[in-house]
Write a structure and sequence with these properties.
This protein is an alpha/beta fold and 484 residues long. The protein has 22 helices and eleven strands. Helix 6 links the parallel strand 3 and strand 4.
């Protein structure tokens, strides 16, 4: 589908906000940021997010162009918007962040938002963009993963409310977390087929690109997968009837499912509803980031630590970092333009990447998660003994996931050689001795070449009772000292 004229016009009519200008003194810059924020609010949510690139397509194009900007203007009664998240894993990942950001921008504009965990639809599996069917998920596993996704969404909404929303900034819309198993699990099959099923056209469903591709494949397409768009459409209908929802949000690959929802709601209620898509985040090779592609960067700390999430964004290249600042942060466009101006003058500081990483890590893991990521960065890349001493056991395990852990008693006169042998870090005999003398061993980031050096508290053993032993380039050992 071609991009609606509305989004094209938003892109051209961005106005002065976001254009690069000469650097301003800090007081004037703060004033300009506030003026920019008010001006974008006056222009409306839709125009502001098209300008940032977050809203990619709006459907249906004509009625959206005629009605939606006015409905989303400041001062109008709040609308309700929703987005669905199927629990096909026990964590959200970076690919889910843009739909979440879209919900948060609606909420910041005073509208009510609903995040729907697909406890029912995950049992079928969305065929969009897939070459073959998903492996069926047992009901118990889906329920457990749905609980985990709900907890992850609660953290994101909570961190946003606590860290990114200033009291007195206006109405922050309500946020609700629902599970579609609550209504789809209770819907009798015959009633569903006789009601919603009677309003959806086979020709429309069969014409979807994802459906056509699967039908032409050797594996074909199951009835369960074919009915997935119908169930997602029913979600929209249920939320419209019970929560007044008029906007469905989703990734760009969800446009077909969104169109089915629009068709069902309009036919069964006569109401005018809308769909908005956000861009898909891809890797440098063009693959969609996610579990299926095997390149997911998770938002659950147990799967991807705050340090690893921080580093993922710090490593983004210059050709995408400005775009990502607009998509993944709430920074005013004027401030982003200034950050990029400073980067052009001092590219070696990686200023935009560090700001991007800090903003995303704080949203996902909170203030303490960001501090943890910074401590780990200093310890690993700057050999900071101070950072190592401040790290918790959890942070050490996250930073050195493949490291061997050992608990040792510090004996009088214990040497570097003794430590390495007790930790089974070097082979016995002369080869292990030479490993140290040849410079292949470091303790707490400092190379040691004398095997007979006696271990010293505060140097080889940190204040937190830990030593970080490295043998070679990649073999780490976390030593916890007992009874110091």
């Amino acid at each position: 589908m071609a991009a609606p004229a509305l989004c094209r016009r938003c892109g051209r009519a961005a106005g002065p906000w976001g254009l690069r200008r000469a650097p301003l003194p800090p007081p004037l810059r703060r004033r300009a940021h506030e003026q920019a924020r008010r001006a974008r609010g006056a222009a409306g949510l839709l125009a502001a997010q098209c300008e940032r690139g977050l809203f990619q397509e709006v459907f249906p194009a004509q009625s959206a162009e005629e009605q939606l900007p006015a409905l989303l203007e400041p001062g109008r009664p709040p609308l309700a918007a929703y987005c669905g998240f199927d629990p096909t894993a026990d964590s959200l990942h970076v690919g889910h962040l843009l739909p979440v950001m879209a919900l948060l921008h609606f909420q910041r504009a005073g509208h009510d938002v609903i995040a729907v965990v697909g406890g029912a639809t995950a049992r079928l599996g969305d065929p969009s963009g897939r070459e073959r069917a998903r492996e069926p998920l047992p009901a118990g596993r889906v329920r457990a993963q749905a609980r985990a996704l709900r907890a992850g969404l609660e953290r994101l909404f909570g961190n946003h409310r606590e860290l990114f929303w200033e009291p007195g900034a206006g109405r922050l819309g309500r946020a609700a977390l629902l599970d579609n198993a609550r209504w789809l699990g209770r819907e009798p099959l015959l009633r569903f087929l006789g009601g919603a099923g009677g309003r959806l056209r086979m020709g429309t469903l069969l014409s979807r690109q994802s459906c056509q591709a699967r039908l032409r494949s050797a594996e074909g397409m199951s009835l369960a997968e074919f009915l997935y768009p119908a169930l997602q459409a029913y979600d929209f209908l249920h939320l419209h009837r019970h929560h007044g929802c008029r906007v469905q949000l989703g990734g760009h690959d969800q446009m077909g499912n969104i169109m089915s929802g629009y068709e069902l709601v309009t036919k069964m209620t006569g109401a005018e509803v809308f769909g908005i898509t956000v861009p898909l985040i891809t890797s440098t090779t063009g693959d969609k980031l996610g579990k299926t592609a095997g390149n997911a960067v998770w938002l659950n700390r147990e799967k991807t630590s705050p340090f690893e999430l921080y580093q993922f964004f710090v490593r983004q290249q210059d050709n995408v970092v400005e775009k990502y600042l607009k998509l993944f942060t709430f920074l005013p466009l004027e401030e982003i333009a200034h950050i990029m101006e400073m980067h052009a003058k001092e590219p070696e500081k990686w200023g935009p990447q560090k700001r991007l990483a800090a903003e995303v890590t704080k949203l996902v893991h909170g203030r303490e998660g960001l501090e943890s990521a910074k401590r780990c960065t200093k310890a690993l890349y700057h050999s900071s003994v101070e950072a190592l001493e401040e790290m918790s056991d959890q942070e050490l395990q996250e930073l050195f996931r493949q490291a061997t852990s050992a608990e040792l008693l510090l004996e009088p006169g214990m040497t570097v050689l003794d430590l390495c042998r007790k930790a089974n870090a070097i082979p016995d005999g002369p080869s292990g001795y030479r490993k140290i003398t040849d410079g292949g061993v470091s303790i707490n980031g400092n190379r040691v070449t004398n095997p007979e050096t006696v271990l010293i508290l505060g140097q080889h053993i940190l204040k937190n009772g830990v030593s970080l032993l490295r043998v070679g380039k990649k073999n780490y050992y976390i030593i916890k000292w007992l009874q110091l």
